[in-house]
Design a protein that fits this description.
- The chain is of the alpha/beta class.
- The protein has a domain at 2-101 and 152-177.
- Helix content is 43%, strand content 12%.
- It contains 8 helices and 7 strands, in the order E-H-E-E-E-H-E-H-E-H-H-H-E-H-H.
- It has helices at 13-20, 60-71, 84-87, 105-115, 118-125, 134-148, 163-174, 179-195, and strands at residues 2-6, 25-26, 39-40, 43-45, 77-81, 95-98, 153-156.
- A hairpin with a 2-residue loop joins strand 3 (39-40) and strand 4 (43-45).
- Helix 1 (13-20) runs antiparallel to helix 8 (179-195) and helix 4 crosses helix 6 (134-148).
- The longest helix has 17 residues, at 179-195.
């Protein structure tokens, strides 16, 4: 049963996935195909869980095949997506990551710009109103997106920097989770972020 997590870049979707679903993480960096893997808490995220982060590379036929294949599985399979339009077809099973504290949105925009290569930023500029200052433009786009698209199931990440509160938010949204695992992934993620000088401030 596929369970998509819809989010905008910079809004910690990789962390959410890693915290709630340990089966999405792999400890090896050796694989047969040279895919670029997303990372979380010192581990790589299975590439099959991140296809739809690059949704614009696939047509609807390919997207349908992907969703249908995972939907046939008996267990819940959480996947990441940036594809808002396609997700509208699956509103009842999609969790949308939002933040009710608008003062935090600039941080997410800064984080997105910091984490990604210039090519990705250029791709993103094509999808938002571009006035020349990417961080400001992206922040505004987050505000517009959250108002324009309201999915029935939303995860508010306003407590993302308060671990215990955030874990409670995850439990409220997704039900039972392995709290020890979630706590460990959270700690490793933010330790790595600080050590790599990615601890951005608003």
């Amino acid at each position: 049963m596929i369970r998509p997590i819809l989010f905008r870049g910079g809004m910690y979707g990789d962390l959410v996935l890693g915290m709630i679903d340990k089966s999405s993480l792999i400890g090896t960096s050796h694989w047969k195909k040279e895919y670029v893997h997303s990372t979380c808490g010192g581990k790589n995220i299975k590439y099959t869980r991140t296809y739809m982060k690059k949704f614009f590379e696939f047509d609807n036929y390919q997207k349908n095949r992907y969703y249908n294949a995972l939907n046939k599985l008996e267990k819940k399979v959480f996947v990441l997506t940036h594809d808002t339009d396609y997700s509208m077809n699956f509103k009842d099973i999609t969790t949308q990551i939002v933040c009710s504290d608008n003062s935090m949105l600039k941080h997410f925009a800064m984080r997105f710009e910091k984490l990604h290569r210039p090519k990705v930023i250029e791709e993103s500029k094509k999808l938002i109103q571009n006035n020349g200052n990417f961080v400001e433009d992206y922040t505004k786009s987050l505000i517009v997106w959250q108002k324009a698209f309201v999915f029935p199931k939303r995860l508010d990440i306003k407590n993302i920097f308060e671990k215990n509160k955030f874990i409670e938010d995850l439990k409220s949204c997704f039900g039972h989770i392995d709290e020890y695992h979630a706590s460990s992934v959270y700690d490793k993620h933010f330790t790595e972020m600080i050590s790599s000088k990615q601890n951005l401030t608003v």
